[in-house]
Structures are given as C-alpha cells and as structure tokens.
Amino acid sequence: MKLFDVYPINDINIVCAEGSRVWDDQGQRYLDLYGGHAVISIGHTHPHWVRRIEEQLRQIAFYSNSVRIPIQQALADKLGEVSGRPHYQLFLINSGAEANENALKLASFHTGRKKIVAFQKAFHGRTSLAVAATDNPAIVAPVNETEHVTFLPFNDEAALDAYFREHGADTAAVIIEAIQGVGGITVASDSFLQAIRRHCTESGALFIADEVQCGYGRSGKFFTTDWAGVDADIYTMAKGMGNGFPVGGILVAPHIAPKHGMLGTTFGGNHLACAAGLGVLEVIAQEDLLQQAAENGAYLVERLQAMGHFENVRGKGLMIGFDLPAPLKDLRKHLLMEQHIFTGEAKPNVVRLLPALNITRAEIDEFLAALAGSVHALTATSTNASLQP
To answer: For the chain, which domains are there?
Structure first.
C-alpha cells in the first residue's frame, strides 16, 4: 500500500533523539532548531517527560470522557498556575486544528453570530472551519468555503476600525496568531492586539488567541499576547503542549459557559495525553524555561543581526525568522546536508528557527558558527559563478 503524500520530505530517517540533538539511521547526528515544527518544547525525550508517560502507561493509557479522569484536573491546575490563568476553563482535544475549530464553534454558540475576522497570511489548520479562516486558497476545498470569514490586513488598525464600525454587531470572533508562523514570523504589534481586545469588548465578539505555534512559552512569555498586556477570551494550544505527544486544548474565560454536549471528543484528555502534558508544564516551571526562551532568543536575534547577511531578523523568544537574499536562497539545504542542522521555512524565502525552549547557549553558538560557514560557502559559490565568462 502506498502512503499518502503529506509534505515534501527530506530523505532522512531519524531514529533517536535527545535534547536538541537527533540521529539518523546512519548514525549521523543533527542539531535540531526546528523541533518538528515547534512541537518539541522541552527537548527530545526529556527524562521527566518520559518518566511521566511510562508511569501512566503502566496504570492505564486510555478511557473515554464518560468517566472521571483525575489527571485532567491535575493538568488543568498546573496549566492555570504556569499560564497565570487559574480561573479559566480547559477543554482538551488532540491537535491545533481541533483547538481552533472548537474555539470558533464555541464563539458562534456564545454570541449567536456567524461572522469571523481573520488576517491575511493566517494559518489556523486544515479542518473545515479552521481552514476557512486560513488565508491559503490552495488548501480550502469547495465544501470549506464560506462568506462568513473576512480577512483583514495584519497590523492594520485603520482597517480593523473600519470593519468593526460596519460589522461589529454581527461578529462572533476575531482569531489571530500573535506571531504568524506559516505566514513568515510576522509579529503583531502590541497596539494592534490591544485594538482587537478593545473592539471585541465593545462589540461583544470574542478574542481568540491562536497560540498553537507561538504559545506555551515559545515567545518568552506563556502566551505571546501576554506581551501586549491583554487577555483573550479563548486561547488555543497544541504543538509544544505535549512535546511530541498529540494533545491540544482551549482555555476558555469564565464568562463563557459551554453547555453539556456543545463540544465533545473521544480521545481528548485521555490519561496518557494528560501525563505528557503535565510533564511538559512541570519541566517548564522547574527549569524556568520562559526566562531561558526570552534570554536565549534575544541573544540569538542580536547575533543574527550582527552577522549582517540577513534581512529583517524578527521574532520573540525562540520563534525567530529572517529573510534570505538571493545568493543565500539555498541556505537551509546547505545547513541540513552539509552542517547537519534542521531549520524551518516559510514561503518564499524565510528561515524559521523554532528550537526547544531549553536549547543551551553552547548549542546556539554552535548553530551560529555553522551558519557563518554556510553563508561563506554559498557566497563564495555565488561570487565564483558571477565571474564565469
């Protein structure tokens, strides 16, 4: 049977991992600054995380939400503590797309409205309503098309003001990534996030912060919207929430009261997923990873800017992007094949850095040295080619 093609893949078989290192089936070691697309938050196979899962697996791996599952409450309590939102409600599911799907559905239930505001270059998932709020027609099937989603320019307060003057009373929610990942590490300004909060409060719409990729400590604060000093009505989470174990969730403000049966899930909040999620939060707290992400991210941005080869170095914490000039268009490939370093990308020419929150300063310096080597090799090749008759 042929496997369904999901993404273009590198012909590398990763068989072992630890911290910020992975090894392929040939024994080659790689430095991982991609984290499987921002999923690895506390490092590969962190011992505490592994122990949490092993202990739970020996007891029970799964039962449905038809019974009481105490570890769900333990996860909720720890999440409330680490995120600073103990008064919010937690609904557990399995992925980021599910989180956004349920958040948008809940907003419509709560407000009785249909209109959704999303933003240009947004990515919120590939399921029905989440993909309708994703600004990529290539992945929106005819069945997903809806007139209820409006895409506004990112960071354009005038456009936001104009929209709410006309449609505020009909709007169920505004959904935004405070740092767009697939969109190319585009960072929302504090004033823009504050404007969204103000318009939602005044109109009765809900503010949905899509923190699937940029949240869970990646920016140096637990939620990236925290930098703007605003509270969302619903936070969506996944990726780093399980450090590789499939788990997602939404945090729901206390003024929103879902009814029984309004939202549901079979696998969401199962024992094993909660053990993985609890292990992640315990490590984040014990190792002070929010502070580490903020400090190491600032150091990495400063060093990248000082190199002088890259355009528009930006981001917060350990969610960093920069644009490649034409001579360096093959930088990511060179880093992977010659320097054995994984990085991410966004179209057309953005390098995305999404390392584990506990990457060490020594590993960052190792990456920077390799990056300088790749830049030198590629610019030398480009110069030699331009000199050819």
So the answer is: 65-286 (3.40.640.10)
Question: The tokens of 317 are what?
Answer: 């914490």
Backbone angles phi, psi at 103, to 5 degrees: -65, -45
* Rounded CA separation 338/333 (Å): 8
Helices 47-59 and 271-286: crossing angle in degrees, nearest 10, is 150
d(CA 90, CA 87): 10
- Counting every residue written for the chain, the total comes to 389
Residue 192 has pLDDT above 90, yes or no: yes
3-state SS assignment for residue 363? helix
pLDDT tens digits for range 21-73: 999 999 999 999 999 999 999 999 999 999 999 999 999 999 999 999 999 99
Angle, alpha carbons 74-76-77 (nearest 5°): 65
Q: pLDDT of 276-303, one tens digit each?
A: 999 999 999 999 999 999 999 999 999 9
Half-sphere exposure of 120 (CA within 13 A, CB side): 7
More reliable by pLDDT, 237 or 387 = 237
Which residues contact residue 152 at a Cβ distance below 8 angstroms, ignoring those fewer than 6 apart?
Answer: 117, 118, 119, 120, 159, 160, 163
Residue in 189, 186, 238, 199 with CA at minimum distance from that of residue 216: 238
Q: Are 316 and 179 in contact (CB under 8 A)?
A: yes
Question: In 3-state terms, what secondary structure has residue 92?
Answer: strand
Residues 6+ apart with CB under 8 A from 281: 75, 78, 79, 82
Which tokens go with 17? 């991992």
